[in-house]
Amino acid sequence: MVQAEQEAVILQKAGLITIGKRPIPEIEDPNDVKVQIKATGICGSDVHYYKTGAIGDFVVKEPMVLGHESSGVVVEVGSKVQNVKVGDRVAIEPGIPSRYSEETMSGHYNLCPHMRFCATPPYDGTLLKYFLVPKDFVYKLEDHVSFEEGAIVEPLSVAVHANKLAKTTFGNVAVVFGAGPVGLLTGATASAFGALEIVFIDIFEHKLERAKQFKATHALRWKPHEKEADIVKEISKALGGRKPDVVFECSGAESCIRAAVKVCNRGGSIVQVGMGKDDVLFPITELGVKELTFHGSFRYYKGDYKDAVSLITTGKIDVRPLITRRFPFAEAVEAYKYNVDHAAEITKTIIEGPE
Ligand SMILES: [Zn+2]
């Protein structure tokens, strides 16, 4: 029997994306759900693989289907699936850990060394029509939540995870370095968790402009050649002397990492969300004497996806202003080119479909 095929957006190698073919998957595991993909966000990581063919140790050696920020509609369920049914609209959590690793057993499945994460080599992503997911990695969307919003659940889960690590709570002052999609969502989530002041810092004015739609109480531009000490002073001035309890470094820039340590209040928390250079010059003495907590942060784990869906469902966070462009599935290659060419401008591009 010849297996039926479907179109897929495939990264062949660095610099080359094509629309090619992949088999349509059949449900074999009774706990699996087959989802017809309806919307997929383009992520910075996809664009990075497209440009360079690698992120750290993850190297694209074989052609790989792109996409990991997806939502869709359930079209078939295995015999042991009860939490969703055919016709349900769902967000897809795109990383499936081993069910048996120590990390998974202790609740930190994001750290599972056997993680199969969509569009992270060698695993295929979600930019095709039909995709299989284990039943506990799909999250039902209410009728008033769109497929596009369902796609944004993925980066929002990163923001939720970062805020849980920071233990953001009512009355906090939060600072966010980097007003890209994850930075904006992290600030908005800090607000939803109870932070009363949210300071965004970026080098681009238009990004800071958008931050106002993501609960910014202050949006400060880090001007070219401006020193770390100056931006730290500006933040303190904007806050009227109050010091941030939680600082989110979402840019990956070395100078922002250092400024995060300098601006954070004694006893406060810094969460490193952005990725940049492998090694940086770091003010470790200041970290010590201020007794700061500096957290690494990687994707999301138990409860984060569910909480991200709730933040959207309840209207606590409106993610829609993040979406700046839409392309139909047939124009997915153009969508990626657009993201490369407009890297400084764009926030979130959505690929719709395929039909
Ligand atoms: Zn992503």
From TrEMBL:
GO terms for biological process: sorbitol catabolic process. Its cofactor is Zn(2+). GO terms for molecular function: L-iditol 2-dehydrogenase (NAD+) activity; zinc ion binding. Residues 15-351 form the Enoyl reductase (ER) domain. Transmembrane segments: none annotated. CDD domains: sorbitol_DH (cd05285). Keywords: Metal-binding, NAD, Oxidoreductase, Zinc. Belongs to the zinc-containing alcohol dehydrogenase family. This is Enoyl reductase (ER) domain-containing protein.
